[in-house]
């Protein structure tokens, strides 16, 4: 992962006694809570394993697993300076784990023009075999020719069952990874992580951001997802990964801010 370094700024020693701005700045903690819905209807683990949702294509489906990774939470200050919280959080709704994430780095109070995070890993961080805890969670992508021999890690695992065109109950595995086409020489690779912007905020105290994921959006816009066609073997499907990236642009939104 990228590393943070303290920067020593040399400033003139002629400081006005009337300037107390620095005295008002303090470092505070930030917390990110993750909630989930289906077009406004709350989804939690007690709703799993029951076919009760209908996607934009009209297919009825259930959710049996939902895990996804967020990383590199970034605070952008006025003037363009950024504070990047180097770390990641594997949100696991299936087991109700890591639904709340408080990084161990505090940030200064003040005005920020944007707060953002990365869905998945960016190219620098998505390094094969690097994170032992994610390896133990079976979160790594197999380093095989079919998947472009680039390895790395999942961004999301969304699984369940749906009713297909023959009225049969069929499993689906909507797994999001870096897009790689192993059939070309050399393999074609395209980054598919998503930068999620939450907008501006003034931080005056310890702060909690409530982040909402609308799961229905993964199947909706701009690509109306046909589970009868795209339900499994999506990891080696380069075009499917690009479509997932496009559909994921509007999945997350900012709910309440508490401080």
Automatic annotation (TrEMBL):
It comes from the Bacteria. Residues 1-21 form the signal peptide. InterPro entries: MbnP-like_dom. Residues 30-228 form the Copper-binding protein MbnP-like domain. Pfam families: MbnP (PF20243). Keywords: Signal. PROSITE patterns: PROKAR_LIPOPROTEIN (PS51257). This is MbnP family protein. It comes from Lacinutrix iliipiscaria.
């Amino acid at each position: 992962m990228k590393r943070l370094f303290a920067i020593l700024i040399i400033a003139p020693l002629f400081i006005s006694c009337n300037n107390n701005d620095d005295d008002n700045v303090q470092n505070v903690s930030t917390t990110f809570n993750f909630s989930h819905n289906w077009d406004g209807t709350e989804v939690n683990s007690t709703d799993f394993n029951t076919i009760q949702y209908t996607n934009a294509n009209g297919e009825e489906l259930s959710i049996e697993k939902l895990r996804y990774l967020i990383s590199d939470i970034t605070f952008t200050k006025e003037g363009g300076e950024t504070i990047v919280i180097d770390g990641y959080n594997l949100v696991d709704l299936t087991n109700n784990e890591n639904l709340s994430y408080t990084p161990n780095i505090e940030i200064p109070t003040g005005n920020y023009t944007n707060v953002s995070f990365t869905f998945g890993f960016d190219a620098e961080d998505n390094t094969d075999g690097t994170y032992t805890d994610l390896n133990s969670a079976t979160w790594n992508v197999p380093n095989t020719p079919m998947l472009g021999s680039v390895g790395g890690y999942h961004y999301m695992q969304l699984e369940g069952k749906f009713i297909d065109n023959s009225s049969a109950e069929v499993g689906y595995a909507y797994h999001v990874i870096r897009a790689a086409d192993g059939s070309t020489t050399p393999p074609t690779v395209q980054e598919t992580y998503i930068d999620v912007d939450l907008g501006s905020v003034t931080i005056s105290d310890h702060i909690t951001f409530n982040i909402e994921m609308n799961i229905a959006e993964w199947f909706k816009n701009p690509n109306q997802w046909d589970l009868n066609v795209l339900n499994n073997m999506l990891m080696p499907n380069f075009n499917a990964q690009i479509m997932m990236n496009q559909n994921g642009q509007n999945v997350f939104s900012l709910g309440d801010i508490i401080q």
